[in-house]
Amino acid sequence: MLASRMFARGFASSSFQRGAKVAVLGAAGGIGQPLSLLLKLNPHVDRLALYDIVNTPGVAADISHINTNSVVTGHKGPEQLGDALKDSQVIVIPAGVPRKPGMTRDDLFNTNAGIVKTLAEAAAKYAPKAHLLIIANPVNSTVPIVAEVFKKAGVFDPSRLFGVTTLDVVRASTFVGQVKNSNPEEVKVHVIGGHSGVTIMPLLSQTGIKFSQDEIEKLTHRIQFGGDEVVKAKDGTGSATLSMAQAGARFTDSLLRALAGEKGIVEPTYVKSHVAEKDGVEYFSTNVELGPNGVKKIHDIGPVSDYEKKLYEAAIPELKKNIAKGVQFVNKA
Ligand code: NAD
Ligand code: LMR
């Protein structure tokens, strides 16, 4: 750990020479707490600012006792939001309500759109150059909401805004590993599109693994609706928190390493993208190479099977609708 910290500090060729300040907004929640814990263990983090409307003093005091070389601060309520955000290189946003059984992610829009808009307005004011990692659902719409807020404030840079879709990739590795009896850590699946139901498209044909058509259909459905499995099992108490914290910490770590100058880091993430522009879709997830300024190179979709072409056709109208809803929310009279 000491060695990688020295790497981060001594050899960085990035926009920051020391470890980063990372702010977590929604830090006292089901995702926020374990995510903050994992970030406290990350050697690239110098300062960890934990913000929520409740309970952050306790969470921050607790996490601050962990003996890693970063400073933790707790911030509660809107009057302390500016301090949490100021000087942040990375802002992670898991603030918002989770699903209950029977709900779609879009059903969260009415509550979460307003929360994300308010937090984005503060980020545009206090940390306009930070990288924003959006976890709050519906991600397909909350990312465009943040973009529109930043555009209005005149500080939008698409290379610094990310919808966190890492959990879909994590699930895809796990489910394929289970079916093929292989180590899930070694299974890499390119998951493209968005983060809800049919907009989640695992490209199993690109894995190099042989599947029967039945396996492809069952695995695709399970990856698309993996979130529902957890919502159902939690029986009204929430959605994925622990696996999401791990996925969020993985994406944050990848970005921090790229910001610190490490090369060749690629993660699928939902960004403003050229990839599906011809079909009228402005935000789309594919593999993205991360660099010292955030998005370095957006990879294309790559070769797809006929089955995956049909997935794409089904996803496009839903993505368009979700994106338009987010854009309109910010720009309504
Ligand atoms: P939670 O209810 O346990 O925690 C949410 C936290 O947000 C709470 O602590 C709450 O106080 C806080 N909050 C509410 N309004 C706020 C505001 N204005 N400012 C700051 N904090 C505020 O929910 P959770 O299980 O942690 O889920 C959070 C969100 O993440 C949900 O929208 C959920 O759907 C989403 N999620 C996304 C993914 C993904 O893959 N992107 C995965 C899992 C969950
Ligand atoms: C997930 O994929 O687990 C999250 O988006 C939460 C949810 O509502 O399913």
UniProtKB/TrEMBL annotation:
Keyword Metal-binding assigned: no
Chemical reaction(s) catalysed: (S)-malate + NAD(+) = oxaloacetate + NADH + H(+)
Keywords linked to the UniProt accession: NAD, Oxidoreductase, Tricarboxylic acid cycle
Binding site for substrate: 99, 105, 137, 171
Residue stretches making up the Lactate/malate dehydrogenase C-terminal domain: 165-330
Active site: 195
Amino acids binding NAD(+): 26-32, 52, 112, 135-137, 244
GO cellular component: mitochondrial matrix
Residues in Lactate/malate dehydrogenase N-terminal domain copies: 21-163
PROSITE patterns, A to Z: MDH
First-level EC class: oxidoreductase
CDD domains: MDH_glyoxysomal_mitochondrial
Quaternary data: Homodimer.
Name of this chain's protein: Malate dehydrogenase
Organism (species): Spizellomyces punctatus (strain DAOM BR117)
Organism lineage string: Eukaryota, Fungi, Fungi incertae sedis, Chytridiomycota, Chytridiomycota incertae sedis
